[in-house]
């Protein structure tokens, strides 16, 4: 498998980690879209949200716990932040390893549906 996020988990590609536990890794995005832009990924390879199995649901909760901790530690919890998961090509998912973007540190534009 040639997954860049799996390589970050393995340590074969460097990253600027801000959080790691047994199941989850969080690191700064190399092309930030906001002053705070952290990617939060499971260590287990899951291609996208649609591939999450029933037994993976505790892992999703662990990702959300990490997101809350990162928001607090990166000082965006009070001012506000966005937690985004893109699922599939039409959503803009580029890396097919489940991941969440934690964005904050400035007033973010509204998400308007067409």
What do these coordinates show?
By secondary structure, this protein is α+β, with helices and mostly antiparallel strands. It has one domain: HIT-like (HIT family, subunit A), CATH 3.30.428. Helix content is 21%, strand content 22%. The chain has helices spanning 4-10, 57-73, and strands at residues 17-20, 24-28, 36-42, 81-84, 100-104. It has a five-stranded antiparallel sheet, covered by helices on one side. A hairpin with a 7-residue loop joins strand 2 and strand 3 (36-42). The longest helix has 17 residues, at 57-73. Residues 4-113 form the HIT domain. The active site is at residue 99. GO terms for molecular function: hydrolase activity. This is Purine nucleoside phosphoramidase. InterPro entries: Histidine_triad_HIT (IPR001310), HIT-like (IPR011146).
What distinguishing features does this structure have?
114 residues, alpha+beta, HIT family, subunit A, five-stranded antiparallel sheet, 2 helices, 5 strands, 22% strand, globular
């Amino acid at each position: 498998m040639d997954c860049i996020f799996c390589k970050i988990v393995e340590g074969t590609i460097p990253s600027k980690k801000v959080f790691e536990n047994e199941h989850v890794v969080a690191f700064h995005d190399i092309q930030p879209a906001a002053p705070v832009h952290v990617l939060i990924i499971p260590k287990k390879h899951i291609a996208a949200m649609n591939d999450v199995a029933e037994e993976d649901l505790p892992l999703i909760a662990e990702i959300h716990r990490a997101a809350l901790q990162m928001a607090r530690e990166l000082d965006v919890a009070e001012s506000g932040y966005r937690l985004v998961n893109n699922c599939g090509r039409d959503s803009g998912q580029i890396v097919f390893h489940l991941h969440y973007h934690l964005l904050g540190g400035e007033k973010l534009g509204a998400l308007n549906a067409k």
